[in-house]
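User: Quick sanity check before I run a bigger batch. Here is a single chain. Can you write out its predicted 3D structure?
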Amino acid sequence: MATFTRKVPEGDDRERQVCVDCGHVAYENPKVVVGSVVTAEDGRILLCRRAIQPRLGFWTLPAGYLEMHETVAEGAQREAWEEAQARIELDGVLAVYSIARLGQVQVIFRGRLAEPGFAAGPESLEVRLFGWDEIPWDSIAFPSVVWALNDWRAAGALPGPARQNPASDVRGMHPLPAEGAL
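Assistant: Done. Predicted structure follows.
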């Protein structure tokens, strides 16, 4: 088993995990999260109530970590199926968010139900369509879900340039309050 130590490799500018025997650098890079704001024909938005931690019982978009050997679009469609048993069509990238405190890059698409029907997958307690005024804002799981919903609403029907973190949280450093504080 190799032994690693933290040091600044030659030609680099930050500490990394470096093998003491061979000098291999084990880079630690952000994880990619993919998901989508999915709408029905009537404009209502598909949300999933989480059956897992973190934020068990809170509402989120169908989203999750990108898997090896899939594109970001394939990953977003897979996540919609896994979490909401929904087949979706994608209409372009809505936003790319940087969540520095978690080491995440989130690629959020505009999506729409490609066929009728959806149901809770293994990571969801329930899945529902919400009109804008029905969204349970006090029970949204993550700040980036709020950002994505607001960006979707602000963008209107036409795809445009991808949105980014709001100016109030440009580096994605501000989590939601603790679960009991909502």
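The CA atoms of residues 143 and 176 lie 6 Å apart.

User: Great, the batch can go ahead then.
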